[in-house]
């Protein structure tokens, strides 16, 4: 049932064509926000925005490559032009190819940093002036358990997500005087389309992944909606005194040591 927890707010969600990003955009729209679906994938992004609107929400797709500063600047300016303001930013877009230290080339390292760390930096940088103009707002960065205790075959990704955590805490202090809150969300092991596809390349079936979820602390994988509930809270006025926080939606997974070879990615 719609509660209007973000009624009237304008919120940009990157990587919103599918997975966690789409679930967040959809739920934010259900709660009264006008959402911008930002993604590189045009067909999927248009479809995501159309679905949200078909369900009674307000949505607009804007093609965005978060690795491009000009795209991120254009995203924020176009959002403000269309909807008149920006109240929230959800930095969700990410890319997580595997690679040990020796396997990670300079080119791969740079690309992973561009998407997972520079992208949120560009979006924050160019959203801030609009958030200030709106009298404040909320930025939510989607992080990872790998930003705290990384897997050995996700070296570059872990470095990017660790950097994003440091940036989150830095911006929380730097932007507090502008009434702009900045927080960090850690999803659990979510079986998004990308996660399933990644494991399929290694011969791991969806059935096997689902079975593995039964052995997790709370008996199942987290789903995209689990993260969306947290995102609505952190982008709403209910969290008006929450900034610089790390919210784990991972069934306690970040409190346990990650074993080498574990399939955990998000």
Detailed description of the structure:
The chain has a seven-stranded parallel β-sheet, sandwiched between helices. The protein contains eight helices and seven strands; from the N terminus they run βαβαβαβαβαβαααβ. It has about 270 residues and is of the alpha/beta class. Helix 3 packs parallel to helix 4 (about 105-135).
Instruction: Report the major sheet.
Output: 7 strands, parallel
Helix and strand pattern: EHEHEHEHEHEHHHE
CATH hierarchy class name: Alpha Beta
Cα-atom radius of gyration:
17 Å
Please, how many domains? Answer: 1
The helix content, as a percent range, equals: 40-55%
What low-confidence regions span 5 or more consecutive residues with pLDDT below 50? none
- The overall pLDDT, averaged over residues, is 91
Quote the CATH topology. Rossmann fold
Overall shape: it is globular
| Class from secondary-structure proportions | alpha/beta
Sum up the structure in keywords.
Rossmann fold, 8 helices, seven-stranded parallel sheet, alpha/beta, 15% strand, 7 strands
Could you give the topology of this structure?
Blueprint: E1 10-14, H1 19-30, E2 34-39, H2 42-54, E3 58-63, H3 69-83, E4 88-91, H4 106-133, E5 137-142, H5 155-174, E6 180-187, H6 193-201, H7 206-213, H8 224-235, E7 246-249
Parallel strand pairs: 1-2, 1-4, 2-3, 4-5, 5-6, 6-7
Summarize the structure.
The protein has 266 residues and is α/β, with parallel strands linked by helices. The chain has eight helices and seven strands, in the order βαβαβαβαβαβαααβ.
